[in-house]
């Protein structure tokens, strides 16, 4: 196993003192690849607006909200009152989850601003480039989080609001400030917060958690390591520079590739759990089999001879996989495809 001395948390590393981090933020690595930094002297309203939007990680939030929305739509047929009376709840639930996810993203960037300045992938974010100050970012997170709780409590239900609060704290505090630094299994344990939107969507409509909701939660939970570890392999030098003990650094690339394949294999039967729970029918089952088999094939090829470009391709495919899988859930529910015969 590689030496872990260079993987100490930032506060334990004398070479990463606050002055050094400030210099890193002010002077990005010359000639290094990465997103173009936002101007440190933001003067126009358009640039400032873009900086605040970037703090919310819109692409990440979009996938989070999509899983929650699909979960809500899948739960709608379970309600005897029908779909029409629940449209206001559907809209409010989507808005509340969007606001909560955006608040968590902002808090994550506030907590990670020091290491973001050292990583090529993240050094162009608004906080390392001073496009937005920390007080302004915290104020934005407070506004978004408060608005999320108000919307969910007043127009959805208290259970969903509490779950959203726990998920926000789990991601922005427990994962970002503790798990990330404590164990190379950080993304596995922290995956519970990322999978929470599937529960939020179901709870928004039904008011509770049951087997159907847990089946959707487990899909995202098992998918998360297979999704993130390819990126951790491709960007391992960034994590090494920041001192984050990601699995490719602590256990090696070959071991991590094997774990990605193991999770891809486990994901196939897990993805069929909605069929067993009675949530989805034959259309979804067929699609899940095709997508899952393709994921396993790609992960197996990557495990044999995958380099950094292949890792990024697998990372991007994993996003396509989850999006397509939940789109199938939505289509299956909308068409009312009969379920598969399941022994009882």
> Could you tell me the mean pLDDT?
86
The CATH superfamily of the largest domain is known as UbiA prenyltransferase
The assigned structural class equals mainly alpha
Q: What proportion of the residues form beta strands (DSSP E)?
A: under 5%
Secondary-structure element sequence?
A: HHHHHHHHHHHHHHH
CATH topology of the largest domain: Tetracycline Repressor, domain 2
Largest β sheet strand count, sense and barrel closure: none
Query: If classified by CATH, what would the architecture of the largest domain be?
Result: Orthogonal Bundle
Number of domains: 2
- Cα distance, first to last residue? 47 Å
> Could you tell me the number of beta strands?
0
Task: Indicate the low-confidence ranges by residue numbers.
Answer: 1-36, 38-42, 337-344
- Give the oligomeric state: single chain
Number of helices: 15
Helical content stands at over 70%
Shape: globular
Top CATH class of the largest domain: Mainly Alpha
